[in-house]
């Protein structure tokens, strides 16, 4: 247990929700810590709390105002946070391996990223896949997982002009984060690869293969391997 546990700050977030902010900086152990709190709240106080959403260094707690007052909710959260152990450098609870093809035909921004970072394309690929990324948040689009932290050598700005359409499965980087687009959508991140893995399915439970507190490892595959996985209809892990 660490003595550096951030001091929580509580903010109203509508008539039936409270936002808990754990410090002002993102820490590597924070996703695991927030997930533990979420699981405990839903397990032990499900009659009061309807939904808990962790993201970066915050926790959005929604509750039933017929069963609990805002003041009582804050007291409950203060108690839970005080008692929950906080471990620095806590490990991820689950590791999900994601196949990625970095072939030029699937990576329209790879050369541009390499030039910006003063690296070769092979170096960009090796650096990108050498890190196990934590899931910081889910948002923007259903199943879009913000993964970090990206190696400083690969931190590039977003595109000046976002694309109107980014294909589902596109692997992208921007600033300190990387992600896989779960569905076709507009997007302004730099596309450096493609994954055939299904990232979001509203008919399944859970709908995404990862949640906050998990880790993602990108595994390089050849173009032939990627096409084979696509034909097989690669399932989620």
Automatic annotation (TrEMBL):
Annotated GO MF terms: ATP binding; hydrolase activity
Domain Carboxyltransferase: 8-210
Entry keyword Hydrolase: yes
Keywords: ATP-binding, Hydrolase, Nucleotide-binding
NCBIfam families: 5-oxoprolinase subunit PxpB
Name listed for the protein in its UniProt record: Allophanate hydrolase
First and last residue of the signal peptide: none
Organism in which the protein naturally occurs: Aliidiomarina minuta
Entry annotated with the keyword Endoplasmic reticulum: no
Pfam family, one: CT_C_D
SMART domains: AHS1
Highest rank taxon of the organism: Bacteria
């Amino acid at each position: 247990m660490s003595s550096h546990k951030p001091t929580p700050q509580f903010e109203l977030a509508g008539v039936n929700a409270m936002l808990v902010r754990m410090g002002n900086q993102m820490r590597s152990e924070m996703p695991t810590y927030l997930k533990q709190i979420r699981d405990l709240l839903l397990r032990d106080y499900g009659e009061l709390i309807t939904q808990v959403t962790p993201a970066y260094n915050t926790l959005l707690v929604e509750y039933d105002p017929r069963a609990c007052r805002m003041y009582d909710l804050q007291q409950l959260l203060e108690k839970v946070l005080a008692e929950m152990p906080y471990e620095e450098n806590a490990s991820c609870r689950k590791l999900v391996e994601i196949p990625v093809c970095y072939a030029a035909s699937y990576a329209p921004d790879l050369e541009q990223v390499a030039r910006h970072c003063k690296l070769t394309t092979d170096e960009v690929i090796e650096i990108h896949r050498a890190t196990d990324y934590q899931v910081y948040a889910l948002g923007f689009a259903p199943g879009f997982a913000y993964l970090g932290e990206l190696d400083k050598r690969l931190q590039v700005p977003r595109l000046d002009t976002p694309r109107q359409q980014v294909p589902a499965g596109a692997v992208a980087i921007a600033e300190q984060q990387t992600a896989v687009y779960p569905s076709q959508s507009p997007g302004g991140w730099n596309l450096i690869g493609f994954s055939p893995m299904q990232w979001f399915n509203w008919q399944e439970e859970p709908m995404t293969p990862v949640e906050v507190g998990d880790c993602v490892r990108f595994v390089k595959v050849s173009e032939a391997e990627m096409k084979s996985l696509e034909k097989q209809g690669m399932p989620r892990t």
